[in-house]
Amino acid sequence: MAKKVVITLTFEAQNICAKQGEIDEEGIVANTDISDDNNGCSPGGQKLKDFQSLVYLGYEVEWKAKVKNQVDPIAPYMVQIVKVEKKPGTVIDFFDTDPMYPDTNGKVAGTVKNNSDLLDMIYKYNVTISVYEAGNTDPCKTYVVDPKLQANN
What we know:
- It is a single chain.
- This protein is mostly beta strands.
- It is built from two helices and nine strands.
- It has helices spanning about 15-20, 25-30, and strands at about 5-10, 30-35, 50-55, 60-65, 80-85, 110, 120-130, 140-145, 150.
- Strands 3, 5, 7, 8 and 9 form a five-stranded mixed β-sheet that branches. A four-stranded mixed β-sheet has the order 2-1-4-6.
- A hairpin with an 8-residue loop joins strand 7 and strand 8 (about 140-145).
- It is globular.
- The mean pLDDT is about 90.
């Protein structure tokens, strides 16, 4: 059944901010989860790099970011999606807009083109994420995850 698909990225923000220097791929994988409301999976076994969401021609895809295990509700960590864009070298255009940025409410979404040429194609994209410690306006870490989309009817 064709529908809007919501992809949720969940972060162990406290662990991410506690890492010194740049966060490496192992640190990203250990502290980041991804899921969607349409039975997305990681067929290649790598939970982020291989994660693939089935999306529908002419329907919206929305990305959300949230903190897992918020340790202090008074001074919470925050995560924000900075942008969603096709991965360099990707020649397929699933969306009319690239890159996609959050709107004024923080929502990042795009509608998959209603083009049958996209059926069963794999769209490789990057999601840039910033993680913030409580009360800070500068992120403690900014990094990229690179899952995939596959178009369906």
